[in-house]
Amino acid sequence: MKDWVIDDDNLSLERKSILPGEGFFVPDSVEEAKEEAEVEAALTGADVVIVADPDADGLACTALVREAYGDAALVPAGPHDLDDALERVAEYGEPGATAFVCDLCPDSYDDVGEALESLVGSANAVRWFDHHQWADPVAAAVRDAGVDLVVGDSEEECTADVAVRALEYDFPDYLVELAAVTRDHDLWIRDDPRSDDLADFSYWADPEEYIEAVAEHGADLPEDVEEFLAEMRVEKDALIEKAVARADIEEVGPWTVGVTYGRCSQNEVAEALRQQGTDAAVVVKPSGSASIRGTDNFERAHEVARQVNGGGHPKAAGCKPGIYDDMLDYAHHWTTRGAVAKQVILDAFRNLEVEEAVGEEDGKADEGE
Fold first, then answer.
1. Does residue 202 share a domain with residue 97?
2. pTM for this structure?
3. Considering its fold, how many domains does the chain have in total?
4. Tell me: the pLDDT tens digits for 292-302?
5. pLDDT below 70 — which residues of the chain?
6. Which H, E and C letters describe the chain, residue by residue?
7. What's the CATH code of the domain at 354?
8. Do residues 100 and 171 both lie within one domain?
């Protein structure tokens, strides 16, 4: 396959909205070999290691740990490759190093248990900061493995907040403020306009570039970064408009759900759909994953996501339905604008309504007795 076929620069905006980015078409084996080599190089000689989600929250935690501990190697990881990241740190990390895990939550202990126990056995200490909703058995098992786990209230704190209070260090005011502004976006409060800047910059910039900028400037990003964001947002806004324009509004039980498809910024799309009167929004991505966003009228996004190979928060969750067996399934996904994924996720909403109805019937039966 020629490089130009997947080169984003050769795509019209309409096609770019429908197709995944060029990284999607790189085989996992190639990407994993590259990542393994990068991790091995980064961990050589490192006394402190951080496994973190490379979004604004995870990278803010990395900046805070580095402020408190000095140099620390970063191993970026998402929920679906957390096990691989822990395994690589256990294998390539220096014996006796201190390891941190930030802004990540396993669905079950079995997903990470073997790699985590190996890491605990080789490290001096393993500390884990997060704010997602942990199942009690998973949290207990992680702590029993020898990990210092601190989980904040997912409706009150982001993981950067957790790091500020859990690390025994007197952080400068501008880094405490960084955590607060990060929370403003991560919990979808949106009272501080700087939080959107942090979220966009963390998405578009290299993780080390982001960490360096916020470690020096906090939430007040320098002028050259603001100029970069303004340039990038021209295309971002156009992709948001296309996703909003192709959205359908569905009545699912007691909820009004906006459902759309496209490569876009899901939070802004969800906000636009909320302004159209939706209680929840589903944004299906060309890569096959989906974002689920709630409102004050719907705080069960994580319950929907858990039915579809995902998880998250009551008002913000993500998932990737297990419906892609080969490239033909992905081709169907792109040409139908995510039709199957949309249906699977809407069915998960319907399952919530069924569960509520069953509970109501049980209550009536109890009253009758």
1. yes
2. 0.78
3. 2
4. 999 999 999 99
5. 353-369
6. CCHHHHCHHHCCHHHHHHCCCHHHHCCHHHHHHHHHHHHHHHHCCCCEEEEECCCHHHHHHHHHHHHHHCCCEEEECCHHHHHHHHHHHHHHCCCCCEEEEECCCCCCHHHHHHHHHHHHHHCCEEEEEECCCCCHHHHHHHHHCCCEEEECCCCCCCHHHHHHHHCCCCCCHHHHHHHHHHHHHHCCCCCCCHHHHHHHHHHHCCHHHHHHHHHHHCCCCCHHHHHHHHHHHHHHHHHHHHHHHCCEEEEECCEEEEEEECCCCHHHHHHHHHHCCCCEEEEECCCCCEEEECECCECCHHHHHHCCCEEECCCEEEECCCCCCCHHHHHHHHHCCCHHHHHHHHHHHHHHHHHHHHHHHHHHHHHHC
7. 3.10.310
8. yes
